[in-house]
Amino acid sequence: MPLFKFIAKDSTGKKYTGEVEAVDENALVKILQQERLIPIEVRSKDSKQAINLSIFKFGKGVSSSEVVNFTRQLSTMVSAGLPLTDALLILQKQTKSGNFARILGEVVSDVEGGLSLSQALGKHDRVFGIVYVKLIEAGETGGVLDKVLSKLAQSLEKEREFKSKTRGAFIYPSIVVTVMIVVMVLMMIFVIPKLTGLYSQIGTQLPLPTRILIAMSNFLRSFWWLLIIVIACAVYGLRVFARTPSGAKIVSRFVLALPIWGKIRKTLILAEFTRTLGLLIGTGIPIISALRVVRDILSSPSYQEGIDKAIGRVERGSPLYQPLASDPAFPPIIPQMIRVGEETGKMDEVLGRLSLYFEGESENSIRNLTTALEPIILVVLGLGVGILVLSIILPIYNLTSQF
After folding, report:
1. Is 104 in the same domain as 241?
2. For the residues of 138-171, what is the DSSP string, one character each?
3. Which helix (H) or strand (E) holds 381?
4. In total, how many domains does the chain have?
5. What pLDDT, in 10s, does the model give residues 350-361?
6. Which pLDDT value is given to residue 399?
């Protein structure tokens, strides 16, 4: 059997290191847990790098919904005692996506050829993600594949539902704002030019709002292409800037500092952080490896830096709650609850509850924001229409008042 090096700690925080022979890293994690030790890092003695996993990623041509449905149905079939190859064949025939059906066909062939499910899925890690594959492997090693599949399906469904609610909350404001912009542009291009010809026949000095409106209409009609180029260049330049290390930090700090959206963005990040970390730890992934995964999937450099500092201190034997407690990016409830999880050995349950808390906070904040946006949009729309009507009517009113 291969020889593995490990770093672990007990409930008091005492650090242990050593070498153990095991079938694989998942078997070693179970050995450490039986000894009431919390695995921090596990690596093969011949490997230069510790196990490092990446979170769920779905490849081109395969939607997240297809993977979620596949996981849920496979979990149900395996729990019911259906042979794995039969379950995979049924799911392959049921899927409506040609690309996903082809991938499942290859998985079925590999499983029938003697490979484990995790090995077969590992050939398509761009579709399922390395973490997905590793969790399946842990389920196979421990003989609890049905439970791991159920947990995976629940996590993926919650994530999909949460993202759906988040996007759905902005549908109405987005439609209203889009229609408002389209109407304004159409007025500028088609309505105002006709009125301009009428006003030129009047021969009097036009009011300032009307002159501004006519100038805007003339510019839009003459230089609409320039406006599109400027907007496209600005968007492209911002995206390129945001991809640089310094630019990503600046954009992240700016977004997090926004009055309302900044708070929503923070709760979204914290929900993702706690949900992913809890899922990884709950299936036996060492803390250090789990933290590295979470760091890689978070899109905020501010939180990535905080997790990097936490990884360094945990590697030196510090409990996880201590570096998080000293980082202002993490609210006090996170280190407090993680401390409880570390002391009771129920870190995954505590993190799961935390993720539900932050998801609820995010939903409430988004709901409040969209509720407040509706009257604000209506007021802005009313002001815009009022200014437009005033600019159109004012010259006619001035003309009639002269008689």
Report:
1. no
2. HHHHHT-HHHHHHHHHHHHHHHHHHHHHHHHTTH
3. helix 347-401
4. 3
5. 998 998 898 888
6. 66
